[in-house]
Design goal:
0% helix
């Protein structure tokens, strides 16, 4: 199972304050010969001193040799500011361990 994270960041506002609606997505590819049930999660944090916060999770089935996604995992609305934020995703097939963390970037969302 190969896993990639990606994000979209839509502009908005909360009154006079500009915001970003940041949505995390997951793309998964099953390179095996059996279909897999896959659980996935996304986490968000402010890089300087922030703690990881779960923004969503889900489950899907990925057939043998096929790919799914991008699947929306969760979102967070943040007031724009001079801080760097980070989103990461991971996944696991039934009976397996969680994958390593995949950082999410906007360029990875293209299908």
């Amino acid at each position: 199972m190969a896993v990639n994270g990606c994000i979209s960041a839509e502009r908005g506002s909360a009154g006079r304050f500009p915001t970003r609606e940041i949505t995390a997505y997951l793309k998964a590819r099953n390179t095996g010969s059996k279909g897999l049930n896959v659980a996935y999660e996304a986490f968000f944090r402010v890089v300087d001193g922030g703690h990881w916060e779960k923004v969503g999770s889900g489950r899907t089935h990925v057939r043998a040799g096929e790919s799914v996604g991008p699947l929306e995992v969760g979102s967070s609305t943040r007031v724009c500011g001079p801080v760097k934020v980070e989103i990461r995703v991971h996944a696991k097939a039934d009976g397996a361990a969680w994958s390593g963390w995949s950082p999410a970037a906007t360029r990875q969302c293209r299908t």
